[in-house]
Amino acid sequence: MPFQLERQVLFRLGPAADYVREQSQFKNTEAKAVQRVCSFVGTKGLVELEKLATVAWIRSREQIYDTELVAILQNSLPPHLPGNPPRGPLASFVSC
Question: What is the pTM of this model?
Fold first, then answer.
């Protein structure tokens, strides 16, 4: 099996992050839910995030909820990731 380097997504705060924080009106439970999602996503590599996005797309766009069928469909789709490291605008969001 060939060696595959896992690409990691780097999430960074943008210049408007403070403004967004000041304007947000999250309830405590909502803020905790957002933090939980961020913690979960922040630990995933690019390949894992693509798989999660594909499953979410199958469930929301195709309205398929059967776990086994979703897994079959997800595994039958070719990955969208390029074989080479990304270039252009995407390169600034991905580290190898």
Answer: 0.51
